[in-house]
Design goal:
- The structure holds two protein chains of two kinds.
- Chain A is mainly α.
- Chain A has a domain at 55-158: Fumarate reductase/succinate dehydrogenase, transmembrane subunit (3 helical TM bundles of succinate and fumarate reductases), CATH 1.20.1300.10.
- In chain A, 66% of the residues lie in helices and 0% in strands.
- The longest helix of chain A is centred in the middle third of the chain and has 29 residues, at 51-79.
- Chain B is an alpha+beta fold.
- Chain B folds into two domains: 2-128, Ubiquitin-like (UB roll) (Roll), CATH 3.10.20; 131-256, Alpha-helical ferredoxin (Fumarate Reductase Iron-sulfur Protein, Chain B, domain 2).
- Chain B has ten helices and seven strands.
- Chain B has helices spanning 2-12, 14-24, 58-69, 131-139, 159-164, 182-186, 193-203, 211-218, 232-236, 243-256; strands at residues 26-34, 44-52, 88-91, 94-97, 112-115, 122-124, 127-128.
- In chain B, helix 7 (193-203) packs across helix 10 (243-256).
- The chains are: A mainly alpha, B alpha+beta.
- The interface between A and B is large, with 35 and 37 residues.
- Chain B: Residues 26-120 form the 2Fe-2S ferredoxin-type domain.
- Chain B: This is Fumarate reductase iron-sulfur subunit.
- Chain B: It comes from Streptomyces reniochalinae.
Chain lengths: 164, 259
């Protein structure tokens, strides 16, 4: 063992006169680039529960419903009956007088917000490498989602057409 | 029959075949992404130019380089015939088996890029650390689980029952699919297509009794629900397994609990 080592050092000294040029050698290899969060035997085992399955299903179902809601919404608001120029306070007040449109808009608000938020959640899960970054990005997302959903719901239910 | 073959070989003549092969040789540049932690912490691209028959495979070109030009080139290969799954690598930006890719099929007029598969730690040149990959494989329990006494004869299965999971029995664990998956690139804790394919192979096997258990494992937050159906795995599979379809079947089994 010791003989091998001496020969190695002798060889190294012979081939590389300037030691400080070679940063890495057999005894001091460069660090390899490991993937972030790789699977090991200690990777957390099965988190029981169907949350991921439910969100996956929700994305599919809400997507189908949203196609109808959003395309219908765009058609009514932007195309039919004079197009975008007809939209004003009176138009909105007229629509929200009917519970049907209240429910339509409420469903659209909730489904679109949750659909988008869940999509962003998966994007964060996919791309955020550090646990801390992941956590705070998701917190920001959840707060923004809850705020928007609550504010929108409040407006739909407390809308007063006679406001001055 | 044997004599006829021998005669045929004789009549073809060594001169003839040598002439043919010499005229068939083309000049190919292989651009290989090399990494040696004992020399540098930076990977670098190195070009090798060689004369080769376009009907040879990329693996033959790598052999030629290793045996005749630069012996330090490092890569894995075992059977060299597309069965052992050792030599999956990224050739011209796509995951393939070097031993199943013919030079003529991948545009030899331009330099052919060869690099290690992505998402796993590169140890040297084209050799990656496969441990996380096989850990995911182990985690889905890729073995027959049954209860009761062992039968004295083989476990019978109808042709239809066998057909149900035939596609996923073809997997050779080369990691071409898993290392082509963008979700796996960013988060190596995702089981990856290969592990799901091998879970599928037992979940849909009528002789196996641990389907529920395996489904529960894949219901995990790093399980099948992280699949974004980008179909990279299906495109990458050198065995032609419909990987994304298999993953979707596992998803369906999880929702309907019928398999």
């Amino acid at each position: 063992m010791s003989t091998t080592e001496t020969t190695e050092t002798a060889n190294g000294a012979a081939t590389e006169p300037t030691d400080d040029v070679a940063l890495f050698d057999v005894d001091h290899p460069a660090p390899v680039i490991e993937p972030p969060r790789k699977r090991t035997a200690k990777t957390p085992k099965a988190s029981r529960g169907n949350f991921e399955m439910q969100t996956w299903l929700f994305m599919r179902l809400s997507g189908i419903v949203l196609v109808v809601l959003v395309l219908g919404h765009l058609l009514i608001q932007l195309v039919l009956d004079g197009g975008v120029s007809k939209i004003g306070f009176a138009f909105v007040a007229g629509r929200w007088a009917s519970p049907f449109w209240q429910v339509w808009d409420l469903a659209m608000l909730w489904l679109a917000m949750l659909h988008g938020a869940n999509g962003l959640r998966t994007v964060i899960n996919d791309y955020a490498e550090r646990d801390n970054t992941r956590f705070w990005l998701k917190m920001l997302l959840y707060v923004a989602t809850v705020f928007t959903v609550l504010l929108g719901t409040l407006v739909i239910f407390t809308f007063d057409p006679n406001i001055r | 029959m044997g004599t006829a073959t021998l005669e045929k070989n004789d009549s073809a003549g060594p001169v003839d075949s040598a002439e043919n092969s010499a005229s068939h040789l083309i000049t190919v540049t292989l651009r290989i992404r090399r990494f040696n932690p004992e020399v540098s912490d930076e990977p670098q691209w190195q070009d090798f130019t060689l004369e080769i028959d376009p009907k040879e495979r990329v693996l033959d070109a790598l052999h030629k380089i290793k045996w005749e030009i630069d012996g330090t080139l490092t890569f894995r290969r075992s059977c060299a015939h597309g069965i052992c799954g050792s030599d999956a690598m990224r050739i011209n930006g796509r995951n393939r088996l070097a031993c199943k890719t013919l030079i003529k099929d991948i545009g030899p007029d331009k330099p052919i890029t060869v690099e290690a598969i992505k998402g796993l730690t590169v140890l040297k040149d084209l050799v990656v650390d496969m441990d996380p990959f096989f850990q995911a494989y182990r985690d889905v329990m890729p073995f027959l689980i049954t209860s009761g006494n062992e039968p004295t004869r083989e476990r019978y299965q109808s042709a239809e029952d066998r057909e149900r999971f035939d596609d996923t029995t073809k997997c050779i664990l080369c990691a071409a699919c898993t290392s082509s998956c963008p979700v796996f690139w960013n988060d190596g804790q995702y089981f990856g297509p290969a592990a799901i394919v091998n879970a599928h192979r037992f979940i849909f096997d009528s002789r196996d009794e641990a389907g529920e258990q395996r489904l529960e494992i894949l219901n995990d937050k790093d399980g099948v629900w992280r699949c974004r159906t980008t179909f990279n795995c299906t495109d990458a599979c050198p065995r032609g397994i419909e990987v994304t379809k298999a993953i979707q079947e596992v998803k369906r089994a999880l929702i309907t609990r019928r398999f």
